[in-house]
Every structure is written in structure tokens, then in C-alpha cells.
Amino acid sequence: MNQQDTAKILPQMAAYLIAQRVGVYLIAGDLTNHFAQSLAAVEQLQRLIAPAQVRFIAGNHDMLHDITYAGLELPLAPTYLHRGYLDVAGTNWQIIGNNGWYDYQFAHNLWGRDFATWKRAFWVDGSIDQPQGDVVRMDRVLAQVTVQLQQAQLAHKRVLFMTHFVPRQAYIRYTTDDRFWNMANAMLGSPRLGRLLESYHVPVVQFGHVHRHFRPQTFGNTTYYNQSVGYYNRRINEWTQTDFMTEWRQRLHFLTLK
User: Which of 45, 100, 124, 131 supports an S-S bond with 165, CB 3.0-4.6 Å?
Assistant: First the structure.
């Protein structure tokens, strides 16, 4: 939404969601390049569609400015679902959120490279505040998610899990002619998260980060959804439509939880 007039599009989004009788609207991160701006947009959308619920997690772009690692770990607002949950009224479903991270394992074809140095030099995430290395950060994510899933299991809840980063290798593209992209795979997510989710038989997973238009895919008992809108700017056009609202409506996916 970096290039969009939110004062104009948020009421349009709210009107469409209300017309579709949406009860919960989920955003898997990367709204803008500033956390405060992303949070403000979500809070405004929440006010517009209440009593329906809006929940979001932070993507790497939301983390680029005006937020620290410690800040991201806090329950900053009811709409911010990282390390939190939402019980869906009238159902046995619980929506769990965790921002997620990465541990370089998707770049296994280049194992042994200095991904941390490459990231600081070439990848946008090099500016993100964090007090630990990427692998340790991912270890903490997995520990957090394990606790979240155990609590849901004790409550006998069915889980819809939302994260930003990629949880399965099936969504990673390997090339023989693009060295940059193969290095960037290291920063896309972790297969360990997918294995953890599937070990708890999580029925539904939503994630973002990669912008190709994937259809829902089921592995074992777990169905994965990626509904990213993607970039539209002077350098990159990942849209199939010509305006934000049309593209956004096309990328929505409606689930009935009962």
C-alpha cells in the first residue's frame, strides 16, 4: 500500500468486506515500509468494519523503520496478532499469529555461503533491528509457535495459523541463471516451521512474503494459502489488473470456518 491513498482506499476496502459479510479479515504482513503507518492503516480499517475483526502480523517491510525487535514482540494493539490468538466466535477455530523469520535452509543448494554478510550488503532486511543472528531468531520463533500450538491443542481448538515468511520448500524457486535470487532464498523462510505446523496437524496456514500467485495447496492435513497482492511500481509489476482495488479484490480468498 506504499503508493496508495489510504484515506481513499480503506473505506472502499471496508465497504467491500462488509458487503461480503466478512467476520474476520486477515493480513499476512507487508502493508507498508513503516510499522506505524501499517498499524495506523489496520486500526482505521478495524474502526470502519467493526464489529467484524481485523488482524495482521508484521512482514519484513513493516519492520524496516520505526520499530525495534523488542517492540515487535509486544502486544502493541488488539489488531496485531504476533504471538497472539483470536477465537472465532461461534466456532471451535482459533486464529494464531506469528511474524516468523528465516534460517537460510531454503538456500541449501548454496550451503556454506556467508548469508549474513550478503544480507547486510544486498538485502532490504539488512536494516532491520535485531539483537541476534537469523538462525537464533528463527529458533525463538519455533519455540513461540510450539507454545502457541500446545495451548490451542489443550483448548481443543482447530487452528488457522498466520505468518509472513515461507513455511514450505514447495514455494521456493531455484534457478540456474539468477545467482542473486538463489542467495535471496536464504531469507525467504524456514522449512522447519512447516514441519512443526504439520506435526500438530494444523488445518489451515496463511503466509505472505513471496508474490507469485499460488493456488491453495494441501500437504498431508494442512492447506496453505498465499494471497499476496505484490508490487506495482516503476520497476516491478506483479499485478494482473491495472488498479489496486481490483487487484486486491481478486487476490482475496474467503474461508468458511465452522
Answer: 100
pTM above 0.90, yes or no: yes
Name the nearest CA neighbour of 12 among 186, 245, 251.
245
pLDDT tens, position by position, 130-179: 999 999 999 999 999 999 999 999 999 999 999 999 999 999 999 887 78
Long-range pairs for 175-179: beta carbons < 8 A, 24 or more residues apart: none
pLDDT digits (tens, 9 = 90+) for 213-227: 899 999 999 999 999
Spatial CB neighbours of 246, under 8 Å, sequence gap ≥ 6: none
> What is the Cα 124 distance to its own chain's centre?
17
Residue with cell 494459502: 225
Looking at this protein, which amino acid is placed at residue 169? Q
Query: What size, in residues, is the chain?
Result: 258
Cell of 249: 479484490
In the chain, the amino acid numbered 128 is I
Q: Spell out the domain ranges in the chain.
A: 6-251
Q: Where does residue 243 rank: exposed (0-12), middle (13-18), buried (19+ CB within 10 A)?
A: exposed
